[in-house]
Amino acid sequence: MPDNAARHPNLSHTVMTELVLPQHTNAYGTCFGGTILSWVDIAAGVCAGRHAGTTAVTVAFDDVHFILPIRLGDIVNISARVCHVGRTSMEIRVDVWRERYGGPREHANTAYVVFVAVDSDGKPVAVPPLIIDNDVDRGSFAESSERRVVRMTKAQRVGKTEA
Amino acid sequence: MPDNAARHPNLSHTVMTELVLPQHTNAYGTCFGGTILSWVDIAAGVCAGRHAGTTAVTVAFDDVHFILPIRLGDIVNISARVCHVGRTSMEIRVDVWRERYGGPREHANTAYVVFVAVDSDGKPVAVPPLIIDNDVDRGSFAESSERRVVRMTKAQRVGKTEA
Amino acid sequence: MPDNAARHPNLSHTVMTELVLPQHTNAYGTCFGGTILSWVDIAAGVCAGRHAGTTAVTVAFDDVHFILPIRLGDIVNISARVCHVGRTSMEIRVDVWRERYGGPREHANTAYVVFVAVDSDGKPVAVPPLIIDNDVDRGSFAESSERRVVRMTKAQRVGKTEA
Amino acid sequence: MPDNAARHPNLSHTVMTELVLPQHTNAYGTCFGGTILSWVDIAAGVCAGRHAGTTAVTVAFDDVHFILPIRLGDIVNISARVCHVGRTSMEIRVDVWRERYGGPREHANTAYVVFVAVDSDGKPVAVPPLIIDNDVDRGSFAESSERRVVRMTKAQRVGKTEA
Amino acid sequence: MPDNAARHPNLSHTVMTELVLPQHTNAYGTCFGGTILSWVDIAAGVCAGRHAGTTAVTVAFDDVHFILPIRLGDIVNISARVCHVGRTSMEIRVDVWRERYGGPREHANTAYVVFVAVDSDGKPVAVPPLIIDNDVDRGSFAESSERRVVRMTKAQRVGKTEA
Amino acid sequence: MPDNAARHPNLSHTVMTELVLPQHTNAYGTCFGGTILSWVDIAAGVCAGRHAGTTAVTVAFDDVHFILPIRLGDIVNISARVCHVGRTSMEIRVDVWRERYGGPREHANTAYVVFVAVDSDGKPVAVPPLIIDNDVDRGSFAESSERRVVRMTKAQRVGKTEA
Lengths: 163, 163, 163, 163, 163, 163
Hints:
homohexamer; Thiol Ester Dehydrase, Chain A; 5-stranded antiparallel β-sheet; 2 helices
């Protein structure tokens, strides 16, 4: 049963570390885009579930640019943070960095993933409001509001609404 | 070595069938969004590689709406088709349907994935032009051109260009 | 609840595309025979389930010859089609081709897999008759009938019957 | 470099134990036929490699009857033993039993798998002759010789020979 | 329902064979320590479950030294044997050897894993006493008794007891 | 090429989040001990590699007590921190917590894993000294020194030394 007092994004912030193994790569030693999006989906889903206090299901992936390739043996650092909430939906920003032992972390891509909190029958449930008390989270919230308008316009065309 | 005579999208059209097993689902019997995007990435990558005649790497996933949930035991039908090509890049449209034995196929989501053809050193290589000879492919090409403009505008902000 | 009006093999024909990744290969870059048979089993099982309108369980794999090796990075094309039905059993012919980007599809092996349709308690249930209206399917049906006789003779020795 | 002195089947006999986990089952708690054949292929391949003293690749699976279903939570006992050798080929008999904690082992199926020994370039190499010194192995060898004739007759039709 | 007549360790002795595939290795062709411990856990769990006649859950891994590295393409031989039982707990000794085709088996590591037998609600249940009738098992039992004292002393510090 | 100036444990501290899926559990919904140790091994290996600036291989797992079971659907939080270094070896402390959406984090187990830094030929290489500037790290270092003495005494019996 989720508790709906407003919550700070720090409380649900999720950090994940993965190591790129042969099973994650194509025949040429590069990590699949789909593998990275699987990790992004799990990190974002845990973050959304922590905010909501209940399970959340993926509703949309906003466009993702793969800026740097991720390679066999790379360490992948993933950080997921709530940037916007609606009544039952949450938008999570996920940043991905690649790293080699002894080298720098390099930003590889950013994704925005939308989730809806659900109860055990899969019915949408209300989520706690977001406490925003700093300029970075304020900026994220504003950009997210823009994306939400674009997304809802498109969703109407395919017959879906986002609460 | 890719042969660069123009090619019809029928020649690279890719059809994939997957069965949703326990390993693809969360604790509540629903298939992960990330798992679906992994299948989409492989189907689209095979389609792009068939058009280019060489390996292709994922550059961007356009926004994806998950319209219907996909469940444990569902059959997943995936269809990938080239809808636009640039000099070294290709946009692939991927449609996903869910199906149960004895039931209808229902449209679950659509994704647009951009790939760049690369040689064995990972350097971009030119791809064959696309032969467009019917109204459906003509419509896809036009919509894709619009998305390409939006994507390139965004990509400029993050310092990437798409050839 | 399966609907038992006769059905055409086109309605259950199943096409699958897989990409050979490092996780499918041995230490020398060749795809395991067992991996290929896993894909064959899933493609054939989906085909059988589509014909029956209910789940089907594997009863027998007829002898399979691996004519060409399948290698890391190959695209594997699998096609499964019902070629014979009994009261509760179905024989599915599965053809496997290997392909490289820019190259031809080469036939790698053929398998015949027998399934029995079952209800949710695992009890065999009757399947729809097969509509045969062309010479290719007619030839498959005839060859399948021969294999069925051989299989049932062997099965009697191990105490099993095929309905 | 394989040593080609004749070898006793006891020296390459291979025993494998697997536990049926959710990732091996369909949506109804039954282990896939293809999963079982993957384990059979690995057990038989290790057995063939041990006899040959070098890697062996799968050439054919003889017909397999699934006599008893294997279920989630079952322990799977697999035993692989060389029953026949040609110049570069080996036939391995694999028996599979299912078991539950506190219950009996029950015979679930038998498979005959043919391998060819290869060097590091994938070229067939000669394998050691088989020492046969007891009636059970003698019986296996005789039955195997019959299957070999059937298999080679079929293989000729598809343009393959077995050394 | 476990039958609690005393049982000989031969009755639950478990032998497992695994082949090191690309999916088990890091980017440099060496098998992960964690992968080996996963196999050890399954072999030991099957052995414990066979002795108890019911499911057993892992309680502790005693210190494990990795004496020899295990490599891509190695065959891994695992042997698990009950060496001590308490009222509801069992200690299993697991030995791991590596092997290459045509080469010797080399001892790679030994682990001691403690399990508790549980019923279907996860509640601990009594296990059969151990029949010890030879010097090797007698020696294992004595060494195990020493480890048990050390483990229970440590466990008291973290607030756990081992029945 | 590792840089051997002394490094603070904060620089290599590694945080990992995993979600327990059906593929990680036994037939009764409990996560395998071996699965948890696989995650611990990867988190600890990344931490060791970050400290060393090069790959590190697992040498030993100290005894691990599983204090609380980890269940299907749990979020697993893993934290790995260098607590001691020798000339080429590093001891990493790994803490594991389980969590449910809307509930507390509960400490599930602690493990100590020893790694040796290696170059690309697998030869041990020297690692940077550890900067210790607070009481928590000082306490960890002292306890680790005790474990190291115990471990090296045992290792001498099995013919291994830890640099």
